[in-house]
């Protein structure tokens, strides 16, 4: 389908741009885009590195990724299975579900 091809090409483009930006150091200290992020919004990364440091927060992160992937793959199915199928009803159900998840897991 055309939409699948477009989505695939968008992913390829994003991956290429990420590799280029990683290679040219645009987001590294002193890079072109480094100062664009306000200091209070920058992440607090540990000095000793953070790659492969697994802990309880890692399991939460993996769960969030799995649920996001599951929901994104089934969004059309959820829309089709609504009783009153309208974009507004789907939006309201999504807002309600996200609100419940935020209260339970936030």
From TrEMBL:
Residues 1-25 form the signal peptide. The keyword Signal applies. Keywords: Signal. This is Amino acid transporter transmembrane domain-containing protein. It comes from Alexandrium andersonii. The lineage of its organism: Eukaryota, Sar, Alveolata, Dinophyceae, Gonyaulacales.
